[in-house]
Amino acid sequence: MTMHYISKIKTDIEKFGSENNQEMEFLFQSLRHSLKTALKQARNLNLKRCAPSTKHSINLSRLLYINLSSVPVPSIVSHLDDLFAYIEETLQSNLKLPITEDFEELIVLVEELEKAVKTLLKPIENIRPYSNGYIDDRPANALEKTVHHNYLEKSLQHS
Fold first, then answer.
1. pLDDT at position 145, please?
2. φ, ψ for residue 16 (rounded to 5)?
3. Other residues' Cβ atoms within 10 Å of the Cβ of residue 117
4. Which of 102, 112, 121, 155 could form a disulfide with 17 if both were Cys (CB 3.0 to 4.6 A apart)?
5. In the chain, where does the domain assigned CATH 1.20.120.340 lie?
6. Which CATH class name applies to 3-127?
7. How confident is the model at residue 18, as a pLDDT?
8. Cα–chain center distance at 103
9. DSSP per residue, the chain
10. Nearest-angstrom CA–CA distance, 76 and 71
11. Which residues contact 107 (CB under 8 A, 6 or more apart)?
């Protein structure tokens, strides 16, 4: 992996964040609120009032998925596909029979996803390899110390 590639990803992520941050914050906040409302109605066994909040959660999760799926890191997008398919399936089944534990789990998942997105979008101030610009792209030998191991040993000796 070259420094150019790392810098490009950094720039693409910063651009993604600046273009999508406000909408993402709104969608996360709204989705959490809808899920909590659905949870409250499910706990009260008020199934007729639970359904609109569940449908609203489905719509918001779809919008959030569309927003997040434009993140410039393909490996993240494949994980988002799986996560949002699970969210959709769970919400659809809760339209028929609301289960409080499902809503509780989805609330936690959405909160964790939001934390992960915020971490991804935190500005990366310095991208500096420990080896003064050299990135070793040779295949690793499990029995041989790598440049990184040597660097860590030197760092620990000076501490």
1. 58
2. -55, -45
3. 21
4. 121
5. 3-127
6. mainly alpha
7. 77
8. 19
9. --HHHHHHHHHHHHHHHHHHHHHHHHHHHHHHHHHHHHHHHHHTT-HHHHHHHHHHHHHHHHHHHHHHTT-S-HHHHHHHHHHHHHHHHHHHHHHHS--HHHHHHHHHHHHHHHHHHHHHHS-------TTTT----SPP-TTS--HHHHHHHHHHHH-
10. 8
11. 32, 35, 36, 39
pLDDT tens string for the chain (159 positions)? 566 767 777 787 887 777 878 899 999 999 999 999 999 999 999 989 999 999 999 999 999 999 998 888 777 888 899 999 999 999 999 999 999 999 999 999 999 999 988 888 886 655 444 444 544 445 545 455 555 556 556 666 765
Which two tokens mark 124? 């990366």
